[in-house]
# Entry
Amino acid sequence: MPTAAEPVPIVLPEKPARIVRSGADPLPVALPEGIVQSVTAAADGFCVLLNVPRPRDAPRRFRLATITDDGKVVAGPVFTIQERHAYPVFISSDPLRLATKEGLYAVQGDLTITPVRPLPQPELRCGQVGDRLWLVANPSDGKGGGWPVDGPDDPSSPDDRRWLFVLLDGDTLDPVTVLPLSTDDPYGAAQDDGTLWIAGNGALRAAPRDAVFNVLARATGGLLGQP
# Structure
């Protein structure tokens, strides 16, 4: 569970961050202390995730901040995530969500975070494609089985079982589609009809929205666990 601390005043540092736009002078931005770890679009601008300096051997500390196009910054409180190797990144921008190795978090209006779903198996990569979210999972048994696929009717071939591309419903965050992959670093794009194109490891494949292996058809419970 995340824990929060009181926000601190932000002043323009000696070497501020800058918004750089074509045809305009760089605009100084008074970001709070920290290293920008992840960034995504947000209302009237964008949102950044900062990795905040910490004492030696202390848990990793983070802070979210929104920046408008004219450089106004609103910073949230410092928080920690109780994971051994917490390293969150944005997984979606509308609504704002963060993903860690062990769970999915919702970003609240005050720039705090709340847990949404734990992940029964650490994700390797994550992102957003169309109106869906995606995770790359490493099959737990090395043969294509494991979350969220569990059984001999795994659709993969023996040569294409190293990783699983798991699509999540954008609203419920339930897994709806699983595709076997030969890479853990894919790229995805969605057409207007919902067809998903996945590229990686020198290959390009198409997956029609409703014609892919559907894990919900034989789900017996919450595959992502309970909040």
User: Anything to note?
Assistant: Residues 151-159, 216-227 have pLDDT under 50 and may be disordered. The radius of gyration is 19 Å.
